[in-house]
Specification:
The chain is α/β, with parallel strands linked by helices and 419 residues long. The chain has 22 helices and twelve strands. The protein is globular, with a radius of gyration of 23 Å. The mean pLDDT is 95.
């Protein structure tokens, strides 16, 4: 991984654009690559890995380098995260930067404040430590610093998991079953899976194991009417349709027509024809209201801070502040109440986020339970056990990277009482 001087210049320039935080980091990086098409696959991989390492560990790297300049941060990441020596970096460094490398190598993390050690903004560390206790908050923060593995969901309606693993292995891709999701497989490394025939034929989809488990918590049955109320690009919609073996009807609802449009080619690739896309005008959309009381199952994977996905999206912790969390929580309560109208008596409602914060998770679920007496809570542990998934959950589901190897997810389930 010894970079050339020119490659380090590219990495610094790409990182500088990402550190503006004017858009999601992956979008900023994609823009840079589009404007520098001469960069090869390995060069792009270096730039991406190095830049994202800085975003994950920005605070501790700033302290080690004694600077917030993108170039200093990048050199600090190459030394502290990737373990490169001054000798390995010699061909990429400018005059005088060996002294910077020496400073970085001599830096001791014991001098860092707790929030700096956790590589979190002060406000987020304070909140997480207050909710979880400092030892657990430290473990959570450490788990969120690791790069996420590449998980796939096998389309079990068309292919068995063991066969998928065997076919990937035959092409030199090492894959193992995920520990919890019956449809999940975890890949070693980051192969270009979107070029593999299994992906092209709709037999596998990229999906974190935690996200897959939400579909099993919803547990739709054949022939039912199901709504994915915040469907986005439809990963969980497709997972629900898979469990229903293509029968029944799945409504993919979202306020973004652009995100929903991405579902069409994915559904076609997977061979799914039971999905109906519905772009919502808002929480009181007239077309959604016509479906009130008709849905057997409704999933609300609500918009949230996304702090459970910091392994993949480390820029979120620098882009969002406490005001954004409060705004999200208010929106989540409104969305959950609107989606609940769709559930018929005896039907199931699942509320989920990829957040790790109480205000977006337990507080929203508790507010809903207190204001909607027509819904009774369901124990997530029992719902997963009924799907033969052995996972130590309680009344509600909380997944952690450092415990489960998934993104951070929360879920609460309810059943509408029979009228």
């Amino acid at each position: 991984m010894n970079p050339t001087r020119a490659l380090l210049v590219h990495a610094v320039a790409a990182l500088a654009g990402m550190l503006e935080f004017s858009s999601p980091a992956d979008q900023a990086l994609s823009r840079y690559f589009r404007s520098h098409r001469s960069l090869g696959h390995r060069d792009r991989a270096f730039v991406a890995e190095a830049a994202f390492a800085v975003l994950r560990r920005r605070r501790s790297l700033e302290a080690a380098a004694g600077s917030a300049r993108p170039r200093a941060l990048l050199i600090a990441a190459l030394v502290r995260v990737f373990g490169l020596s001054g000798r390995a970096l010699q061909g990429a460094l400018e005059a005088g930067e060996q002294a910077l490398v020496a400073r970085i190598r001599g830096f001791r993390a014991e001098s860092l404040a707790p929030a700096e050690r956790a590589d979190l903004p002060d406000w987020l560390w304070t909140l997480l430590a207050a909710e979880q206790g400092e030892p657990q908050a430290t473990r959570i923060a450490e788990g969120l610093l690791d790069a996420a593995p590449l998980d796939l969901r096998v389309n079990l309606a068309r292919l068995g998991r063991d066969e998928a693993i065997s076919r990937l292995g035959a092409d030199g891709i090492t894959a193992v079953p995920t520990p919890y999701s019956p449809a999940g497989i975890r890949l070693q490394g980051k192969p270009a899976i979107n070029r593999h025939p299994l992906f092209a034929q709709g037999l596998v989809e990229v999906q974190d194991e935690g996200s897959q488990l939400l579909a099993y918590l919803l547990a739709p049955r054949r022939g039912e009417m199901v709504a994915d109320y915040c469907a986005g690009a439809g990963g969980k919609t497709l997972a629900a349709a898979m469990l229903m073996r293509g029968s029944g009807r799945v409504y993919a609802m979202d306020v973004s027509p652009k995100r929903l449009a991405a579902l069409a080619p994915r559904a076609a690739r997977a061979g799914v024809t039971s999905i109906h896309r519905l772009a919502l005008a808002g929480e009181n959309d007239a077309r959604a209201q016509r479906l009130a009381g008709k849905m057997d199952r409704v999933l609300v994977d609500a918009p949230c801070s996304g702090f459970g996905t910091l392994r993949r999206n480390p820029d979120l912790k620098w882009r969002h502040g406490p005001a954004a969390v409060a705004e999200m929580a208010a929106k989540q309560r409104r969305i959950l109440a609107a989606a609940a109208r769709l559930v018929k008596p005896g039907g199931r409602l699942v509320y989920a986020t990829c957040s790790i914060l109480h205000d977006e998770n337990e507080a929203v679920a508790e507010n809903f339970a207190a204001s909607h007496a027509e819904f009774a809570p369901l124990a997530c542990a029992e719902l997963l056990a009924a799907q033969r998934i052995s996972l130590a959950a309680g009344a509600r589901l909380q997944l952690w990277p450092h415990v489960h190897g998934t993104d951070g997810f929360f879920a609460a389930a309810f059943e509408r009482r029979a009228s």
